[in-house]
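Suppose a colleague, Dr. K., hands you the sequence of a protein chain of 86 amino acids and asks what its three-dimensional shape might be. Before reaching for any lab equipment, you can write down a predicted structure in token form. Begin with the sequence itself:
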Amino acid sequence: MTLRFIGIDPNTGTGESPTVWVDDSKKELVIQGWKPEAALEAECAAFEVPGHATGIPDHEGIVRVPFRMVPILREACDAAERAELR
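The predicted structure, expressed as tokens, is then:
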């Protein structure tokens, strides 16, 4: 696996470093971020997706998503940016 660094949170301080890489060989994004507070983690764990188990496995911390999810991530980023501009 060869990761290609894309960027790091421009507001990164000591001990914090949300970061994005690309794994071209696996066609995945690799994302490092903050661990959620308990309430948010519980809400995400309870979210139901038809045909998929609920919950967050203990072994997940850094999240990998396939390239095909880029439009979904872009939509989330656009929504976040629009929210910030309000």
